[in-house]
Amino acid sequence: MGMGRRGAGRNGRPTLEQVAARAGVGRGTVSRVINGSPRVSDRTRTVVQQAIADLGYVPHRAARALAANRADAVALVVPETEGRLFNDPYFSVIIRGISAVLADADMQLLLTLIRSPKERQRFAEYAAGNRVDGVLLVSLHGEDPLPEQLTEFGIPGVMNGRRSAAETFPYVDVDNVGGAQLAVEHLIGRGRSTVATITGSLDMYGARSRLDGYREGLRAAGRPDDEDLVHYGDYSEESGYNGMRELLRRRPDLDAVFCASDLMAAGARQALREAGRSVPDDVALVGFDDSAIARHMDPPLTSVRQPIEEMGRAMARALLVEINDAGDGPARQVLPTELMRRASS
């Protein structure tokens, strides 16, 4: 069989193999040229481009992805239940930021919920089968081993937040300590004497950081750190409600509360209403996220704004850089927070 037909497509169109044979290079080199990889010499690129022109080769999108060993897909992994994913507006906003960047890059976004070690292992094996080009991780708890599994398999990844101060995996985070400190300074500045807090899940570094920021805010103002004023929640509306009831039972004299999420602040607001405490006259309330919840509460909620959508965009951009081997080291970004003052405080 003559060279001209070897590896030709079923419709007679020239194939990648024919281009490689014509240029005298391997098919991997051709795919690198087609995909714009910088790891090809100018001379080789010219030879391959000439062969493409001579044969009239048109790269098919799926074939191009296959040739480059690419799936043109990114997995977004959320180790949470469906209830948490759909009830907390944080997730919809960060997904909006991620999907905007990936859509511009013609990448498919695959959403994966992981609720058990078995599901985590199954996903790691799925990702290792070249089914995705990279992985975005949102809302990791504790010392989740998934980032190490991805590294072991050579799969690019970026996480939202960190697991510890010594995080080595690429991440995009926000200034959680500084944001919480702003909230407490604001409440003390408004003349509040007894400031309580409802924390997020303390197996998450971000929640621990917000608690640290709360304590630093008190310390800076010369206030005692009173354990009776701390309730350990889990970011859910229910934990905000239960936490507020418990704090009122322990410390009926409290006159301000900093909640580590807007969703918990909404739960706390309900408990205060039931207890006959008005906001902000009796108890001032501050949340964290500056989500739609904050603007729609009655009264509107003062909240620490974290740029959630921008965080999603930054994560997706950082992952694309990793996938294309175009970076100079892992992404480590910390975005600023600011306090949005409203009527609740």
TrEMBL record:
SMART domains assigned: HTH_LACI (SM00354)
Residue intervals of the HTH lacI-type domain: 14-68
Cited CDD domains: HTH_LacI, PBP1_LacI_sugar_binding-like
PROSITE patterns listed in its UniProt record: HTH_LACI_2 (PS50932)
InterPro entries: HTH_LacI, LacI/GalR-like_sensor, Lambda_DNA-bd_dom_sf, Peripla_BP_I
Keyword Transcription regulation attributed: yes
GO molecular function: DNA-binding transcription factor activity; transcription cis-regulatory region binding
This protein's UniProt keywords: DNA-binding, Transcription, Transcription regulation
Name this protein carries in UniProt: DNA-binding transcriptional regulator, LacI/PurR family
Lineage: Bacteria, Bacillati, Actinomycetota, Actinomycetes, Kitasatosporales
